[in-house]
């Protein structure tokens, strides 16, 4: 579709009542948008930065982690409801099951005498049920990433994330940024260091915990790193959080706010909920970035069209004219904005929404063996001694000799050639939200199981990027925010399927070293998309690899959307950020790596925005 001419047609342009003129525009206030803002400010404090987010200000401290509330510090099980509430499913297939016991006199679309004017469904199915409740008639259920979801609020998903921040494995997962091996390694080392500083990553926040040590010590004993073939490493999971120094029972979880704090000026919120830092940073919540506009076929963005959805001048279309434009609206929202923009035929991005990846997840919850729990009482490690004795003294009837608020385990076994998946042993109950438990066993488990003996095992598997796995945007249907409705077409390759089988076998093997399954949480694969690590939707070019994946053509545009500096092919001033940029199959949690891309791009952007 050649829409470029429309730019000149006044009627194609919305009424733009306000014009804002920052140096840099950023769509999306998640951790990646925040990284761009922080890095750009660090490089050039004079730059004026304007950010918008389609979501509202959910937290009093803009973009902070909701788990920091005392409510969830006291009872982590309650946090699962927050996560659930924060996630909006991306694509819901239409349900065809009619409600047949409704009052026969009410409006029911299948009565033939009701001449419902029916729309056409490109897939020729289900259209008579019309679009409602956010259902997507274009979504084939068997190819869906049914649990894939987005979060719309200031701070994005980092207001609820688990904060796991591993690096990608140099050979098994990590994309390439430089053609030369040494330069590539040095670049990643530098970027990971900076990313960890920005979001505050450590691996000792849980190391004192009895529960943590119990799990880690057991796994190290069962899978000795030396002498075992293949070797296996278990260690503390790197996490973006810090244990409070004044009250070590509590943890401050890091988020977009942690990154924005490095701007060095206090974030102030005005009556219209606009967030400002000094005179150089502004963030408009409830403000949709609708599309980018360019001078016809110039490959240079002229302005972005934004709409304030609430507060302030409601429904005002705002024109933002900047020198550089960054879209960091998540793995779905970013390509959605591009799909909603009018690009000329020769500017279209053939790889947009192709070669998408999402991790396969195996999950179970186990209850620790009685020997392990009894050992805490009978043979406590010297560093546990005082805590154990105090607890026995204060709670002589408690059968478990460790404090009630002993922090959860946070253990990982990083990906390796022999075990090409990412492993987390922790406790957050996060995934039990999607697990079926019948009322009987649920009630029973809830009442009689002590969460101190429960460990979640979560294994994340890689999926190969293939051209046929796609995220497309409808020309007909719109989502609840009046943006093009996304549709998934996703199937695992034979190689990835095999790898997930081995991963499941490995998870059950690890589980049996620690305990028995919690009834209702036996080993299972979770619904595709539940990892919430969707990637590849606007994948980056990898220098030094002729074509990736090999062979489609030598034209970078056919298999990547941005170059190695996050700049969109064919555009001088348009940059993208977020997990959608990662072009490789990977098993680890992606946010830290996406931050690296944003940090690298910021150097190029700061130069252009001068
Ligand atoms: C339960 C859970 C656990 C997780 N655990 C981990 C973990 O341990 N480790 C890890 O690495 N990752 C984890 N993640 C994923 C992690 O949160 C994301 O990788 C990260 O937040 C991505 O950052 P982002 O800034 O690219 O996108 P997001 O955080 O999704 O932010 C994008 C922002 O863009 C906004 N937006 C969307 N469309 C528009 C538009 N049109 N205009 C303006 N704004 C728009 C959204 O409102 C949102 O605020 C987890 C996520 C969840 C929900």
Structural overview:
The chain has 610 residues and is of the alpha+beta class. The chain has a single domain, classed as FAD/NAD(P)-binding domain (3-Layer(bba) Sandwich), CATH 3.50.50. Helices cover 24% and strands 19% of the residues. It has helices at residues 31-43, 70-74, 79-86, 181-199, 210-222, 256-260, 330-339, 370-378, 385-394, 439-448, 494-514, 556-559, 591-609, and strands spanning 18-20, 24-27, 49-52, 88-89, 92-93, 135-136, 149-150, 201-202, 235-236, 239-243, 251-253, 267-269, 275-277, 281-284, 287-294, 301-308, 317-320, 324-327, 360-368, 410-413, 421-426, 454-461, 470-478, 484-489, 515-517, 524-525, 574-576. Strands 12-13-14-3-2-18-27 form a seven-stranded mixed beta sheet, with helices on one face. A hairpin with an 8-residue loop joins strand 16 and strand 17 (317-320). Helix 1 (31-43) packs parallel to helix 13 and helix 4 (181-199) packs across helix 13 (591-609). The longest helix has 21 residues, at 494-514. The radius of gyration is 25 Å and the shape is globular. The two termini are 34 Å apart. The model is unreliable at 1-12, 115-129 and 433-444 (pLDDT under 50). It catalyses: D-glucose + O2 = 2-dehydro-D-glucose + H2O2. GO terms for molecular function: flavin adenine dinucleotide binding; pyranose oxidase activity. InterPro entries: FAD/NAD-bd_sf, GMC_OxRdtase_N, GMC_OxRtase_C, P2OX, P2Ox-like.
């Amino acid at each position: 579709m050649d829409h470029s001419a429309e730019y000149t047609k006044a009627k194609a342009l919305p009424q733009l009542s306000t014009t804002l003129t920052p140096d840099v525009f950023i769509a999306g206030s998640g951790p990646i948008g925040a990284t761009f803002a922080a890095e750009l400010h660090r490089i050039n404090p004079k730059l004026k930065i304007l950010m918008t987010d389609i979501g509202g200000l959910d937290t009093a401290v803009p973009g902070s982690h909701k788990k920091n509330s005392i409510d969830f510090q006291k009872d982590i099980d309650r946090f699962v409801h927050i996560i659930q509430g924060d996630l909006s499913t991306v694509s819901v297939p239409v349900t065809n099951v009619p409600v047949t016991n409704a009052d026969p006199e009410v409006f029911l679309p299948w009565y033939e005498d009701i001449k419902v004017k029916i729309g056409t469904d490109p897939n020729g199915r289900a259209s008579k049920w019309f679009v409602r409740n956010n259902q997507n008639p274009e979504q084939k259920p068997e190819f869906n990433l049914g649990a894939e979801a987005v979060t719309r609020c200031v701070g994005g998903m980092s207001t609820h994330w688990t904060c796991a921040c591993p690096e990608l494995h140099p050979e098994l997962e990590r994309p390439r940024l430089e053609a030369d091996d040494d330069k590539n390694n040095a670049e990643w080392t530098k970027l990971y260091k900076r990313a960890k500083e920005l979001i505050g990553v450590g691996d000792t926040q849980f190391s004192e915990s009895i529960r943590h040590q119990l799990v880690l010590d057991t796994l190290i004993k069962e899978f000795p790193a030396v002498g075992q073939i293949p070797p296996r490493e278990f260690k503390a999971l790197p996490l973006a959080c810090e244990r409070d120094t004044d009250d070590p029972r509590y943890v401050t979880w890091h988020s977009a706010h942690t990154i924005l704090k490095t701007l060095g000026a206090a974030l102030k919120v005005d009556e219209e909920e606009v967030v400002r830092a000094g005179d150089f940073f502004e963030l408009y919540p409830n403000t949709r970035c609708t599309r980018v506009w360019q001078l016809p076929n110039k490959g240079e963005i002229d302005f972005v069209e934004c709409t304030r959805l609430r507060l302030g001048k409601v429904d005002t279309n705002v024109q933002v004219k900047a020198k550089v434009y960054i879209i960091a609206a998540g793995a779905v929202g970013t390509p959605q904005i591009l799909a909603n923009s009018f690009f000329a035929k020769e500017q279209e991005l053939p790889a947009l929404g192709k070669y998408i990846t999402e991790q396969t997840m195996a999950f179970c919850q186990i209850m620790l063996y009685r020997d392990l729990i009894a050992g805490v009482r009978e043979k406590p490690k010297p560093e546990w001694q005082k805590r154990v004795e105090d607890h026995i003294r204060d709670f002589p009837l408690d059968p478990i000799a460790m404090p009630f608020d002993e922090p959860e385990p946070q253990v990982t076994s990083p990906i390796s050639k022999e075990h090409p998946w990412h492993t987390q042993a922790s406790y957050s109950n996060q995934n039990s939200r999607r697990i079926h438990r019948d009322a009987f066993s649920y009630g029973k488990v809830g009442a009689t199981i002590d969460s101190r003996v429960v460990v979640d095992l979560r294994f994340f598997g890689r999926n190969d990027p293939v051209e046929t796995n796609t995220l497309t945007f409808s020309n007909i249907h719109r989502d609840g925010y009046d943006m093009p409705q996304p549709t998934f077409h996703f199937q695992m390759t034979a190689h990835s399927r095999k790898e997930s089988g081995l991963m499941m076998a490995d998870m059950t093997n690890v589980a049996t070293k620690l305990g028995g399954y919690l009834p209702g949480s036996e080993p299972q694969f979770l619904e595709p998309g539940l990892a919430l690590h969707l990637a590849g939707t606007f994948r980056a070019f990898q220098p030094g690899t002729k074509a990736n994946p090999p062979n489609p053509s030598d034209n970078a545009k056919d298999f990547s959307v941005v170059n190695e500096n996050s700049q969109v092919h064919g555009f001088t001033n348009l940059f993208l950020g977020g997990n959608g940029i990662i072009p490789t199959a990977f098993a680890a949690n992606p946010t830290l790596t996406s931050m690296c891309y944003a940090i690298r791009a910021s150097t190029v952007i700061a130069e252009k925005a001068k």
